[in-house]
Design goal:
By secondary structure, this protein is of the alpha+beta class. Helix content is about 45%, strand content about 20%. It has helices at about 10-15, 15-35, 80-85, 90-100, 120-130, 135-145, and strands spanning about 40-45, 45-50, 65-70, 75-80, 110-115. Strands 1-2-3-4-5 form a five-stranded antiparallel beta sheet. Helix 2 packs across helix 5 (about 120-130). It is globular. The N and C termini lie far apart (about 35 Å).
Amino acid sequence: MRSDAASVDEYLDSLPPDRRKAISRVREAILGSLPDGYEEEMRWGMISYEVPLAIQPDTYNGKPLMYAALASQKRHMAVYLSGVYADAEAREGFEEAYRATGKRLDMGKSCVRFRRLEDLPIELIRDAIARYPVSEFVDLYHRGRRR
């Protein structure tokens, strides 16, 4: 479900109470672990954590680089982790650590889908968010573009 909300507060207010609670808790975890320099915005109909164009203006689509995002979809909620997507070693480690929690991993290329907050290992999400300072994520982006 794509949202037309103009602000994070408007987005959260539009959610049903159970989804609002879950998304808010994951958002708190992300904000508490997010390295300095990233900005929280509403983009692509979801809460996005991005590298500002002032830091990295040369992007493939002219938009800020998305580092992470958080969304309430029709049948699930999702955390999008671009660092895990762009770094094979990080992805392998993330998947292994996720399985070690005993929780069921439902993951696309960058999105980790969950239906209830209890289904998501919050500490692992915090670790994935904290992994890349802005400069390292920008370097990872450029390495991926050269392939």
